[in-house]
Amino acid sequence: xTIDSLDPEDVDAADILGSAIERREDPALLTGNAxxxxxxxxxxxxxxxxxxxQYGHARxxxxxxxxxxxxxxxxxxxTYEDLTSDETPGGGSFALPTAWLLDSLExxxxxxxxxxxxxxxxxxxxxxxxxxxxxxxxxxGAVDVAYERLDAVVHPSEAFADDAERLHDxxxxxxxxxxxxxxxxxxxDAFADASHTASIDLENQLLIANAMEPRxxxxxxxxxxxxxxxxxTTQNPHVHRLLMAGVIGHPEHKLSVRAPDVGGGFGSKIHxxxxxxxxxxxxxxxxxxxxxxxxxxxxxxxxxxxxxxxTKAEIAMDDDGNIVGLRVDTMANMxxxxxxxxxxxxxxxxxxxxxxxxxxxxxxxxxxxxFTNVPPVDAYRGAGRPEASxxxxxxxxxxxxxxxxxxxxxxxxxxxxxDAFPYxxxxxxxxDSGEYGKPMDEALELLDYENFREEQERARDEGxxxxxxxxxxxxxxxLAPSExxxxxxxxxxxxxxxxxxxxxxxxxxxYCGTSGHGQGHGTTYAQIVANELGVPYDSVEVVEGDTDExxxxxxxxxxxxxxxxxxxxxxxxxxxxxxxxxxxxxxxEADPDDIEFENGEYSVAGAPARSMSMADVAGAAYLAHDIxxxxxxxxxxTSFYDPENFVFPFGTHAAIVEVDPDxxxxxxxxxxxxxxxxxxxxxKIVEGQIHxxxxxxxxxxxxxxxxxxxxxxxxxxxMQDYAVPKAEHIPEMETESTVTPSPHNPLxxxxxxxxxxxxxxxxxxxxxxxxxxxxxxxxxxxxxDAESVWSAVQANATADGGAEPAGDDADPGGER
Length: 816
Ligand code: MCN
Fold this sequence. Notes:
Elements: H1 26-30, E1 46-52, E2 58-64, H2 66-69, E3 74-78, H3 80-83, E4 117-118, E5 124-130, H4 133-142, E6 144-149, H5 156-159, E7 175-182, H6 184-193, E8 196-207, E9 216-222, E10 227-232, H7 237-248, E11 255-258, H8 274-286, E12 290-293, H9 296-302, E13 306-317, E14 323-335, H10 348-351, E15 363-371, H11 385-403, H12 407-414, E16 423-424, E17 430-431, H13 437-447, H14 449-461, E18 465-474, H15 482-488, E19 496-502, E20 508-512, H16 521-533, E21 540-544, H17 561-588, E22 595-598, E23 601-604, E24 607-613, H18 614-623, E25 636-641, E26 650-659, E27 666-676, H19 683-703, E28 733-737, H20 755-771, H21 786-795
Parallel strand pairs: 1-12, 10-11, 14-15, 20-21, 27-28
Antiparallel strand pairs: 1-5, 2-4, 2-6, 3-5, 7-15, 8-13, 9-10, 9-12, 13-14, 16-17, 18-26, 19-20, 19-25, 22-23, 23-24, 26-27
Helix pairs in contact: 11-12, 11-20, 13-14, 16-17, 17-18, 19-20
The chain binds pterin cytosine dinucleotide.
Protein name: Carbon-monoxide dehydrogenase large subunit
GO molecular function, one term: oxidoreductase activity
Region (Disordered): 794-816
């Protein structure tokens, strides 16, 4: 079903929440009126360029900056020595912090510029500040760096090899951490008693985010006030302000961070990178505005990639097809240093979802993080959850096959039952609400599943290989509460803050500490606030992404904005309504307990004619001529909302593919997605988020992957080489939804921003495995390009070299 956008004028005020209002942010974005960081031009602005390591792993023997310094238009060239010298401003740590700790974590230093060693291609070595960006880049090219090359490692399994070159002196064996979840003994017993087991050995490849807008920053230091303003591509300005204050040694209250329009992030703009901090420092150093914008090549070399798992896992079943155990052993690529939230991704965001949608009595997960010579790995859309969901759904596919059951029947047999919620898994989380059969049934109906199976048989007889794959995914978002996050290692609270301000004329500005960058918060937050206050939708303005405007905030990632930011806005708006009630009671000469509030009107119970509108109350609050004694004038409220639990969206995605075993080509014939993200604030935006997410999931399944050679040199460093799917590669998506509200927030919402990306890859891989079942192909690592599919088919080739279906009764007939 495709949802039509609605003009807000055509929607009744009472229906504003839950309606598919058109996105109010689009006109500016589509007509060239957006303001991106690189659009900012300031008088006297200088430009920064970064000298980056050519090599994946090397010792720095010498950095000669003399030629660059002598170039016309160059204002300065700085190395780590310069940053930390007594003669330069700052006094910061000049090292990037890790904001998520684990007991076994080896916290290695991550200097903003390398001083002794470079540990990945693109590692910063020096910065140049010059009149214009071209001079800056030319001068960066003139910095002469002498390297002593060292052996490099790309994959965790290489990093852990006995003879691997060590990246950090303190990280023995290149081990970043060693972490486990669940019950090893109970799971071993479950496997010992099981009637059937199935296993998998897979790689979940490294991906690069490819946000449309590269990272950029403009910093402006005012020597008169000592204030430093940074505009940058960020998903979480307040977090960047806090971290940057420590890195460059500038007080937090004299530092402001603002996100202008941001052209996508997908996680890659959460993390605190060196470059933005260096821009800020250079601005202080030169007492002038300084800009840096990454080239596309720089984003490939330095944006944190995501995923990067090597995993062995197994599933155990009893005779009736009940899953009795699941065991996982993963090596996770952490890259050269620990990025901001990196340790959380392959541990708590991954291990806690290993139960999937299933009631599994024994689970054990073991994860070992590896330092390697790729850029620091961190969250990329889904972050840990796609890896978990992929693994569980691949195992479930294989488990069903092992016990000889239809994959749908097997899943349904093992779903957490509807009456078991809240459901405590064996891996430390409590699912809030769920009805897992509903999206599955809806998907089966859309697919016309029974008929498809018959068609599949007929097609096989004719030598056409169709397959259907399911993905019954679960996701955790709105990580919470802060106390729990702290126990798990977060070095930050995970609340969200907002301010709802009524203006004297009755219009409203809603400020939220999240920082949207494509998700349509301007629209959905206005819907939430208009609904709570009963004011017209168009009278609500939404402000995000600026530490000077919004008291505090944690930002946008982990599909938290609706569940946590939205709930914070509800809380602030309700405080405004409550204060308004006292003003109305005072003016209407009634007891506050007798005042009713509905659709923006305060009225006296039983005497509806005695009423005041929200706008009248706002006017009275600021006029302050006649408000209750002791009451402060004004009508606004701030909240810090700390959720009581995560929210757990879920759904069933299914793909039908045709695979040509001779060429290895895969065609996605149909893609069906039925998602349950709780109550929907705006179904059109939900649909858009699902679409975008699926596109990225299709990218992972079929096209994308960061490839490095043995020296850790990136081979896929441009859009020519890194295959981001184009529109023609994305299937027609048939989307539907079910609604199971979350009991854990006042809106009953669950997150949607990552659902499609989490769900899609395994639907497609399962479908390909289903299509190639006659050839005995159980698994193909992603991206499943034509060569890997063809090779998998050939691996089962018969002695005469021709690939034929395996098994006695699977003769394809026909021609292939
Ligand atoms: N929403 C809704 N009803 C719900 C849930 C959400 O109407 N039940 C709306 C929200 O109000 C919001 C949007 O859907 O307008 C997404 O909400 P949410 O799921 O809370 O996710 P966030 O806003 O926190 O966005 C983060 C999420 C993540 S983690 C990645 S990665 C991602 C994504 O959003 N990156 C994106 N979507 C993206 N979309 C764009 N265009 N660009 C990115 O970089």
